Amino acid sequence: MDPMSTMEQLVAELNKLNYHYYTLDKPLISDKEYDALYDQLVALEKESGVVLPDSPTQRVGGELLKGFVQHRHLAPLWSLDKAQNVDQLRSWNARVTKLVADYNSKNPDNPLPQPSYAVELKFDGLTLNLTYTDGRLVQAATRGNGVVGEGILAQVKTIKSVPLTIPYQDGTIEVQGEGIMNLSVLEKYNQTAAEPLKNARNAAAGALRNLNPKVTAERKLSAFFYNVGYSDNIRFESHKEMMDFLRDNHFKVNPYISYFENFDDVTKQLEDIQERRAGLDYLIDGAVVKIVDMRTREALGYTDKFPRWAVAYKFEAEETTTVLESVSWEVGRTGKITPVARVEPVELAGVTVQNCTLNNIGDIERKNLKHALGTRVFIRRSNDVIPEILGKVTEESDGEEIVYPEHCPACGFPLEQRGAHLFCNNRLDCKPQIIGRITHFASRDAMDIETFSVMTAEQLYNELNVREPADLYTLTFEDLIKLDRFGEKKANNLLAALENSKDRDLASFLFALGIPNTGKSTTKMLADHYRDLHAVMNATVEELIALPDVGGIVAESIVSFFADPFMKTGIEKMLSLGVKAKAPEAPQVVSTDSFFSGKTVVLTGTLHQLTRDEAAKRLEALGAKVTGSVSSKTDLVIAGEKAGSKLTKAQQLGIQVIEDEDEFIRLLNMEA
Ligand SMILES: NC(=O)c1ccc[n+]([C@@H]2O[C@H](COP(=O)([O-])OP(=O)(O)OC[C@H]3O[C@@H](n4cnc5c(N)ncnc54)[C@H](O)[C@@H]3O)[C@@H](O)[C@H]2O)c1
Ligand SMILES: [Zn+2]
Fold it and tell me: What fold characterizes domain 600-671?
């Protein structure tokens, strides 16, 4: 195809994509894919020197929706030039530096300062432009086509952090920011929504451009503000001054803004932001680098589309689209069946993605994926987690049905549906469940059997008939040495690791058993509370529910786990083979007649003869309750060296204080 026709096609395609993205808030492809097409058009325009009249490279944003009043921005709203990598960022900086040098050679009397830089996060949401007149919010608008936007005042007013009035009352200003939906809010919303939202950006944009402000309010949006685009009366000298103004006027400004004199430090900061990205509660698609000095900004000016004094550094995309090819079903150690999607291989965030999670059948239904085989879907991968399918690209398009299995794919046992999940109840005879249980038992947080892996579990299952964790403790050197890939050393290592594991504490042992719905913190709490394996095994639901953080489901899971004769026999077998399931350290008998018993004690300052932790343990053993802060309920404060505010407070409240460490030790020992 000749370049001209390619360009025409690209322009038509991109304009269609823009319409779906900007006007309908329902993108047809991912940003990553869009950017690739866009870059292709830019390259062709550069090569040919021709720019078609309706090329998207010449305009900002998209068409306005009908139904909203139009708002003409007092100053235009821009798009941002972008850099995909550090080289492109350096080219931007080279252009800036050159323009500044040119300016200075023409204006030697009043030169611009050396460029210095502000680095901000680039929020992925919807641009907001708020108009305040004499301190009152009078209009809020979308960016629209950059010159005219849609008035969405009622919608923006539902954002609780947007100030309706501000202290600054000197005429009219326009303030720009980004309306966003926090990821935690999106997750919560999706838990109960009839139609889950696929993406926080479109969720925010769709909510703000909904004619019904009640819908906007339900989405609980937030916003960050980063620019004063227009003002009747106020001029800023620097970016910093502008940010201070925004903060002083109660706008929510993101805390991650940093300033640099040196361009190399800017690139370091970008790496830092990239590392933080996964921990943020909102989407960012990059960082924005801006020139700090306002006079320099004016001198650099604007192209048709963006300011020359700022650039967006784009991060690797976390979202793309691909075709859902098939679904297979995996059996976990609790018998839970998890659907795993196979997709057409696609590059995403530096790796080739082929498998995605679908969580459970409830998830398939909620995401409207039941008839999605062979259709295009959005997938998302953040950090190292397994990519997730978000939903169909076009809700209307139907593909083949995902057929749910009726029998366990591993053992053929009929499956049972509980809530959103399918389960294979054939616990004693379903290979992946057994392998999963044994592998979990051996894992680091459980029995910590070194060098043990899934492969070991499979080999022991296949060749030595190991069917449950207890069988591990019957293995002999003669058994192991027969196995493939097992030399003398490896066999001895495994036996030694097994021997060591017998000394693991009760909490780890309980965790190793893999009680459904019961994680590490719960097993630790159980061990601390009961201090004895048989006491945990005999606990009743009523008893368990009374414990901290144990709900009905967890209590039921624990009781029915230990009611299972198979589990009981396995545990007794392990005990007889030398597993100790040792109670946590700290004395069992709590003294009731000591100086400290029944007293609420606060430890503060530095002790020299023992650590604060040790002191707390000793006190608890003597029947004291050790707490962190001094209040009227405190009976006694032990003040070590450099004790500060807690000591002062104790003195104010007239609480008994022991400041002499020797005296404290004497009292502790007296009771021992
Ligand atoms: N998937 C699709 O079909 C599709 C279609 C069109 C556009 N897009 C995406 O949109 C991008 C085009 O973007 P655009 O012109 O709307 O926006 P842009 O990427 O050029 O960025 C400009 C916008 O960034 C926002 N921003 C966030 N944080 C900021 C900060 N700290 N300082 C200044 N601005 C900040 C502002 O709202 C501003 O309007 C494309 O790169 C593409 O990824 C996708
Ligand atoms: Zn099975």
Answer: Rossmann fold (3.40.50)
Give ipTM to 2 decimals: 0.97
Q: Which phi and psi (to 5°) does residue 242 adopt?
A: -65, -40
Q: What's the pLDDT at 595?
A: 87
Distance CA 553, CA 223 (A): 38
Superfamily of domain 3-58: Helix hairpin bin (1.10.287.610)
Binding residues for Zn(2+): 408, 411, 424, 430
The alpha carbon of 630 is separated from its chain's Cα centroid by a whole number of angstroms, namely 36
599 is catalytic: no
Which tens digits make up the pLDDT trace of 323-369?
A: 999 999 999 999 999 999 999 999 998 889 999 999 899 999 989 99
**Beta strands across the sheet bearing 117-123:** 82-83, 310-314, 284-291, 117-123, 258-260
Q: From the CA of 632, how far away is ligand 1's center (Å)?
A: 55
Pair 199, 389: CB distance under 8 Å: no
Reported in sequence order, the residue ranges of 233-387 that DSSP labels E, i.e. its strands, are 258-260, 284-291, 310-314, 319-331, 336-348, 351-357, 376-380
Rounded Cα–Cα distance for residues 250 and 166 (Å): 7
User: 543 is written with which tokens?
Assistant: 């008893």
- Known binding positions for NAD(+): 31-35, 79-80, 120, 143, 178, 290, 314
Determine the Cα–Cα distance for residues 50 and 75; give it in Å rounded to an integer. 29
Secondary structure class of 466 (helix, strand, coil): coil
Give the position, in ligand 1's atom list, of the atom nearest the Cα of 127: 37
Give the CATH fold of the 506-576 domain. DNA polymerase; domain 1 (1.10.150)
Q: What pLDDT shows up at residue 429?
A: 93
pLDDT in tens, 11-31: 999 999 999 999 989 899 999
Q: Is the pLDDT of residue 242 over 80?
A: yes
Contact 602, 628 (CB under 8 A): yes
The per-residue pLDDT for 570 is 96
- CA–centroid distance, 260 to ligand 1, in Å, is 24
The four Cα atoms 648, 651, 652, 654 give a dihedral, to 10 degrees, of 160
